[in-house]
Amino acid sequence: MSSKLQTPIDYLKGVGPNRADLLRSELGIHTYQDLINVFPNRYLDRTKYYKINQLQRNSAEVQIVGKITGFKEIAQKRGKRLVATFQDDTGRMELVWFRGQKWIKESFKPNVPYVIFGKVNWFNGVFSMPHPEFELLKVHEKKISTTMQAVYPSTEKLSNKGITNKVMNTIMQNLFLETNGRFSETLSNNILTELKLLSKSDALFNVHFPKNNELLARAQYRLKFEELFYIQLQLILKNLIHKSKIKGVPFTQVGTLFNSFYKDHLPFELTGAQKRVLKEIRNDLGSNAQMNRLLQGDVGSGKTIVAFMSMLMALDNGFQACLMAPTEILSVQHYQGLSELANKLNISIKLLTGSSNTSQRKDIHKSLENGDLQILIGTHALLEDKVKFKNLGLAIIDEQHRFGVAQRSKLWKKGPASTLPNETEVNIIPPHILVMTATPIPRTLAMSVYGDLDISVIDELPPGRQAIKTVHRYDSNRLKVLRFMRDEIEKGRQIYMVYPLIQESEHMDYKDLMDGYESVVREFPQPKYQISIVHGKMKPADKEFEMQRFVKGETQIMVATTVIEVGVNVPNASVMIIESAERFGLSQLHQLRGRVGRGAEQSYCILMTSHKMSQDSKTRIETMTKTSDGFEIAEVDLQLRGPGDIMGTQQSGVLNLKIANILLDKDILQNARFYAKRLLSNDPSLVQPEHKVILDAYREISKYKNIWNYIS
Length: 712
Ligand code: ADP
Ligand code: MG
Known about the structure:
With about 700 residues, the chain is α/β, with parallel strands linked by helices. The protein is built from 25 helices and 22 strands.
């Protein structure tokens, strides 16, 4: 890296201490290097000149050559505005300033041709341009000629303090003049030739001062590729280092529990995808490295059985296992389901949640520590310091997007102490970690966010599932929906009715929920009908009671908020009605729909909305009625929301990309990952001479960025 690029920005011609302060605080530009890496948001066509009589009322930015013929000052509510008459051979217009008027008046030479540039307004019967950029035509003609002018990111403060886009362009030019536009290469020769990439210097020049469209496109490609390449390199390296450095508890054998379960107690034939994923997990557990695996599988794809069989592998090797779920209801359900399987194998299994009482807790703590307890299921309660395992070999986290990173990392520390000789301090061997999620994230994003995790995907549903029929109904058609509900209950089915609950409008939402509940009770009177209600304000015990009534089939309708969103399994429930569906996010809708379609019966999802819907809401509802593929839905979700809200993106840095766009540059990302992988498989330590440039650039980048410090 040229040392010049480390020069503080204060020293660049045209900057000076005041502007330097602003550039630092507003755009994070400290050095020449930072400045050169500020990339334009867009480009303006500066080849075209307009005549005043060609202006349209809705013209965007235009460039005009003309002369100022006079100034006038007009008093207004606060202060005054300066108005100049500007004319060319076709007509006249006004230029307007609300600030810096004295300076403007002094610096404009009358009756000399200027190039002005800016947005035009149609105001009081004349065209006017507020705060135009301007330059003497003579000076303008001598500049680095570029057909497109870069528009840099800016802030209100910057433009108020006079760092206009023109100033940014000028200081960027000065930087290129001072450095002769020569920048050290950061990609290897073979990548450059193979992909026919522009050199670093050419790319930087053309991204800031494009000579033409083609060169601009190539410049952008090269810089995006480079950015994504180094992110992938970092992620893949981290994964490799993790595997070589972090010892795992080796599970050497597939033992009796696993085998006898597989032979004698498997409740159904595993799907091909479940078998494949189990193999992947088995490979990890058998290696000496700690497993750190994400298991993605759509709702209902059968992740639980995979989790259970993985736990058996731990038990077969003399280790304990735990499964943590985000809600009490879900933990209870896991506990009930898995106890049934565990009992067949004489495995000890317990449940620990916030509602476990003191004596239960004492019992659990003791049997965990002396090793009598083999499997522990529970909520966050598992993370408490008092919960100590004798030898935890595998920790599974269900619906991991509900947990924070900190919570997850606590599980690491619950592994067994290393018993290796020569260890000076007590070393904790982290348990193997399997995180499961039913919120699929699109592959491109997974590559960036979880590039350092191993990913398994269950992409196949168990056989015999009928597709859920999803329809959209307006509130005005409620009568028909009620009739449909009666018919389904007549057939012995159960129904969920879900109401939104958003924190900001919590009060109103509870009212809607209670109103809804009351009207359902009116429509479906006791004793013929029984109705459960579950929401977050209820005591856990009451929630549990209501939930259990529904699970046991004692109630036909469950009115609830999204507390039932994750995991709950009631196969006889075949209708999901989502109220105010326009207010739910796509992944939530998809999760909710996943609560039905779990039995043999035809299931339905009815999305109720008012007639008033935003464009995004319409897209969400349409997507839901069109597809049930979680990955496809995730793609649409990503398009609608951007990557910011998707789990993991905060830590991964994909939001801080300088030039690449995670949504639009999928192909480049794929390419970058391919080349990063290939490079590291040929030369994992980057010792070959032709890779020195990559090693250097990598070191430079890692020096500035914290290597993302997250685990899952
Ligand atoms: P999720 O991936 O959403 O956690 P579950 O593990 O709860 O899904 O499985 C959903 C339902 O499918 C459960 O009732 C489970 O018993 C059943 N199931 C899982 N795997 C299979 C399979 N291979 N064949 C038939 N049913 C299965
Ligand atoms: Mg599940």
